[in-house]
Records
---
Amino acid sequence: MTHPTHNGRNGNGNRNGNGATRYEARDPDARFSHDGPLRIAQVAPLYESVPPTHYGGTERIVSYLTEELVDLGHEVTLFASGDSVTSARLVPIGTRALRHSESCHDPLAAHLLLLERVLQEADRFDLIHFHCDYLHFPLSRRLDVPSLTTLHGRLDLPDLVPVYREFSEIPLVSISDAQRAPLPWANWQGTVPHGLPVDFGKLSKGRGGYLAFLGRVSPEKGLDRAIEIAAKAGIPLKIAAKIDRNDRNYYATVIRPMLRRKGVEFLGEIGEADKPKFLGDAFALLFPIDWPEPFGLVMIEALACGTPVIAFPRGSVPEIIEHGVTGYIVDTAEQAVRAVGRVSHLSRTVCRATFEARFGVPRMASDYVAIYRDRIRSPRAVMPRALAPSYQTAAE
């Protein structure tokens, strides 16, 4: 996998003498039987750059997928924030990711502009791959170009049911089987687990003598439980986590007082370059979540470093962690404490081998390309809207 360079190699790379990109016309009917290199648009959310400088799971996955597709010879255009870095052709929306822009007061405005840019160029692509939830659904319904939407968030919220019921023909991809459980009747094209570059991290010995927590400071991520587990296990805990604006009160009232405990070290938000050492030196990763986690990228980041995971059985956890092999799946903090005592029985070599076999970028890209080709060959093979059950919600 190559390292991206901003506006470097052009993934749609036909250039004429003055440096402008030359697009070749394509017979629209030929699109649907095309078996060679594909012209693919990747549409990312604008909250973080692609890849993100620190926290940002969706944008990282979009980056990994985009770079791998370019390496495979496909012609890729990335619609993303202007500070994104890619070897594909970049269509920048704004100058900076919204989370780092002090002038952003309405993120919807930027995303509306994003969709307009996609619409302006839609005929240039064999397929448009969206990663921005459901905002584009009215647009996708009216496009002649095949599209696909990967959903990266939770789907168990009642407000979502009327939306997905109305747009039940939209082709979707889940990132775990557990994620799709609230909407089993949606037009699922497949489940594609996330993947990391095979060279992310390396097999490490875990000799740092601490447990690790990596992610976001929020009630559903269970940082307070992680602190309690580490304290009862008698092992130091290092915390690498970001604090969102919405979680500042939780941090101030619940977490900050707990940081005064002996053995607890709060490092703040760390970038991708710092994760392998942080995770590789850890005795184990604590993942005591209390929500239906759609995937949990940090779990495969830990496995890539050979680090076992102790996690609660929410959402995708049972699909990623094999109990007694790559970690322990527990129901309570007390069980987690006992699992810490058994971590030394697990093979870090097996953890790393599991990552390489199941969670590499090449596998993820191959899965997506197979779905792309199915969509391109049968662009209108979608579920009729009438097949979606007529659920009612309290809001209706």
---
Amino acid sequence: MQRWITRDITPRRTTAHRAAKLLGVPASWLWPELDNSRESASQAEIVTLYPHRAESPDHLWLDLLAGAEKRVWLYANASLFLPEDNPDSIEIILRKAKDGIEIRIPMADPDSPECALRGLEEQLFDAIPARVRMALSYYSPRVGMPGVQFRLQRSTLYNSIFVYDDEMLVNQHVYGMYGYMAPLLHLRRMEGGTLFDMYIKSFERVWDISSAVEDSNFWRQRTSAIMSATQAIDQRP
């Protein structure tokens, strides 16, 4: 830090933003020259790229989730791998919600033609809607809890987007390939960059056209199944 001041050296963009965050000021206040290149700012937002999502470390997902202080947004068809690979993730999400952190989870409507088409494209057929229903079964008991927002959407899934404050993981889907085989992009928002905010806008557009889980056919079927099971138990001798 001393040489930044005494020798008028501009640090690397990522380092500059970390220092500015500690001081509570925009990095451009300290080093105005950082504003000169929007392209370099967007490139600096790229932390790393995993050729396949399956190659990303399990601890990365938990570390980002545990470190979130403002928002946790999870957009995918099912996100089934999250609770399966990291069983603590759902409880962490609930604790985050209780602490006032914004939780948004849009998922595919398993009864939508878009979800069925996804199964056809990946040659998994009915397995895709079934995976969505299984994931919804994990999350359903949390529907209606304060701070946790669930919605179902019927749009085409171009990318799965997972946001943890100013960090983001983007599963970039490839036609005909399973999600775990597709690339995973790790982004960190930088002042002056445009890549991170582009995916945020995409998430928000999907969120705006999504509907409440409670209004879906899945929810009606779930409610009916619970009532039938409860009645069967009550009628036991």
---
Amino acid sequence: MTIGNVSTVAQSQYMLSRIQQDETALQNTQSQVATGFVSTTYGGIGNQTAALESAQTQGSLANGYVATAQLASNQVNLQDAQLSQLSSLASQLQQDVTTAVANNNGGTLMSQAQNIFEQAVQILNSQDANGNYIYSGGKANTAPVTATTMAQLMALPSASQAFANGTQKASVQVGANETVQVGVLASDVGTQLMQSLQDIANSNAGSNFGTQLTSTQSTFLSGEIVNAQTAAQTINDASGSNGEVYQQLQSAVTSQQSMSTLYQGFASDIQNVDMATASTNLSENQTALQAALEVTAQMGQLSLLNYLTPTSTTG
């Protein structure tokens, strides 16, 4: 006679099912502890998948706006430094003309004007790291000042024709419904300065400024003092507006960084696992699987002999 196992097929199937469940739970918690995520697939996120995708998308958009605003801030900061230099050149021209009139001596005025002209052209025709002309507006590939020598400037009917920049100022989007105009046009900030330089050069061509100014030259140059002052004020106004743009961009950076942090928090609440809880679950799942394996092994070894009471014999 053969004595079979006590455990039934149903019991064996139940224990195998428990082992599979415990193995799956252990694998999940091992993955959570290793990655820090509730799940590495959308299937593991369940009905929160749509919310997670939305938070991630909005967070990426916010980061993009931050990057755009920061790059624009760098350009505006550079423009601020250059506009300050340009304003100083206009003020220097005003000072040089004032000194010439005050001393009744224009002997060095044209060399001073030439130096100011060259520096102004260099600033207005400056390029960014990508080779685009900063003050050309929509014509980023075209140098905004075409008259690069004093002779070329003097040959023009008016100084305004020395500029070839576009009319559209550059703008950047720093939010879903927020666009900031960051561009400055060379013709807006440089025309009056160039006009004053052209007028002075043409006047000198007709009658050279010498160490002794004539009354006509003195009267003319007195008028150019006001013109140079107006040119400096125009540039200062543009510089002030540029500073306001910088503040707008910095505000946009702060705002979008806050939005990015907020969306990252949303995504983290959905996707990131509580490591303390996950570690505890890992330990519990390891224990549960081990127990299920031991019980299953013991069930396979049980037979009726385990429950039969030995019969004593008497002599």
